[in-house]
Amino acid sequence: EWGAAMPVAGRDELSSLANTLNYLSEQLARQEQLRKHLMQDIAHELRTPLATLRAHLQAFYDGLWEPNRERLQSCLEEIERFEALVAAVETLYEADTMSEVPSRSGAQTDLRQAAQSVVQLFEPRCAAAGLNLAFVAEDTPVWVQMEAKHVAQVLWNLLDNAVKYTPRGGSISVSVGHRNGRPFLAVKDTGIGIPESELENIFERFYRVDKSRDRKTGGSGLGLAIVKRLVDSSHGVIQVESQVGVGSNFTIHWPAPFSSASSDPRGSAVE
Ligand code: ADP
């Protein structure tokens, strides 16, 4: 219980203090509620792979099943699911704590270089999935105030989705550059798309558009929540345009660098 709100009357300093306290206690209550939901969601998500593993092992133990290759393979897949979830929860936690410390002096990263290495990582996977992968970038560095590993994580999650939700024969493109002086990163696919009514929900934790379909693709429902957190904490904005059966386009914009005259803000100390 967070207790009753302090009564507020008059326009003196005390009442404005009371307002602030009331606001803070509402915020705290909201945070507490979110944390509770998150814990429940995590517990629920971890239980599913554990239950499958337990059922398999029990059947082997009772002699009901021979542990053949195929069944052992299923066990390994459930363990991988479990590991992926734990890793995603860790990243989410890291992104959460980061956004509590707003920083203007974070690391500078060349979006172009960071994106190129992630795109390279995806080349074999796209080739295997019969997808065409293109990388389009300006030919000078595109600086953003974000750690390279976070840029990589954001692009990795977006590309992972693009690959998962684009059928064979489709294309994916990653573009990097400036629009109106603001650095941007975009990932576009010709995949299954997202219904308009779902667009506002996809950045929520554990949200999946189609539970049965996404269970097959092995998603955790945390990928976009992590993207959103990391983008928020670097003062960026993420937008998505999508049409069912046509494809999706995720675009992130960051604020313009302090000095737009210089292509390398590190050289033009305007802090
Ligand atoms: P998941 O791990 O399930 O992919 P995400 O948080 O990354 O979770 O994405 C949330 C949901 O948004 C996905 O389950 C999927 O339904 C939808 N989605 C995300 N990216 C795409 C995309 N490029 N094309 C179609 N649907 C997508």
TrEMBL record:
<dbReference type="GO" id="GO:0004721">
    <property type="term" value="F:phosphoprotein phosphatase activity"/>
</dbReference>
<feature type="domain" description="Histidine kinase">
    <location>
        <begin position="41"/>
        <end position="258"/>
    </location>
</feature>
<dbReference type="GO" id="GO:0016036">
    <property type="term" value="P:cellular response to phosphate starvation"/>
</dbReference>
<keyword id="KW-0902">Two-component regulatory system</keyword>
<dbReference type="GO" id="GO:0005524">
    <property type="term" value="F:ATP binding"/>
</dbReference>
<keyword id="KW-0812">Transmembrane</keyword>
<keyword id="KW-1133">Transmembrane helix</keyword>
<keyword id="KW-0597">Phosphoprotein</keyword>
<keyword id="KW-0547">Nucleotide-binding</keyword>
<dbReference type="GO" id="GO:0000155">
    <property type="term" value="F:phosphorelay sensor kinase activity"/>
</dbReference>
<dbReference type="GO" id="GO:0005886">
    <property type="term" value="C:plasma membrane"/>
</dbReference>
<protein>
    <recommendedName>
        <fullName>histidine kinase</fullName>
        <ecNumber>2.7.13.3</ecNumber>
    </recommendedName>
</protein>
<feature type="domain" description="HAMP">
    <location>
        <begin position="1"/>
        <end position="33"/>
    </location>
</feature>
<keyword id="KW-0418">Kinase</keyword>
<keyword id="KW-0808">Transferase</keyword>
<keyword id="KW-1003">Cell membrane</keyword>
<keyword id="KW-0472">Membrane</keyword>
<keyword id="KW-0067">ATP-binding</keyword>
